[in-house]
Amino acid sequence: MINTEGTPVYTEQEKAYWKSLAREYEAHLADMAKKHPTAAMLGVKTCVRCGQCCYTYVCIPRPEELPAVADYLHISVSELISKYMVADTEDCRTFFLRWAKHGEEDITGGRIPPIRTYDHGYCIFFDEKAGSCLIHPVRPQEARYVKCWKTGNGRDRSQWGMSGWTKDDIYRFIPDFDTHLPKT
Description:
It is a single chain. Helices cover 32% and strands 8% of the residues. It is mostly helical. The protein has one domain (12-173). Strands 1-2 form a two-stranded antiparallel ribbon. A hairpin with a 4-residue loop joins β3 (126-127) and β4. The chain is globular and about 50 Å long.
């Protein structure tokens, strides 16, 4: 059910379902970490290009970072959004654009359906074979901030890309964006 603000209202059964999806996703991420040990797990003090950060935490660029990425790729910001990004939210009030994951190409340029929140996949810009970021020279601040070999790194929410988005920013990039979930 959707309330008048377009925010989902869940029954206890639905809450249990979403919690089970979150637990499954966390277990999947733990399995991926075993297959691709991070620098911290290996005891090194530099990136080992394992891709775990690009799998676990798909970057959320700040609005002002989008033009540099588009320029680097020789496309417009609109093309960047339609080919490589999805609109997401943490609280159903402030929406942000984040890189899609491999496997989410079918929903780029629009709002990610809640059921796809736990999609598995690397960031759309991560090249798994090369172990590298395709936009590394212009990667968002969030990607520059996270260093898996440092204890507690990445916990300062002010450094997260979503902290750079206001309630109105989504409309700068998608003027007809609808914050309400479609009624099913």
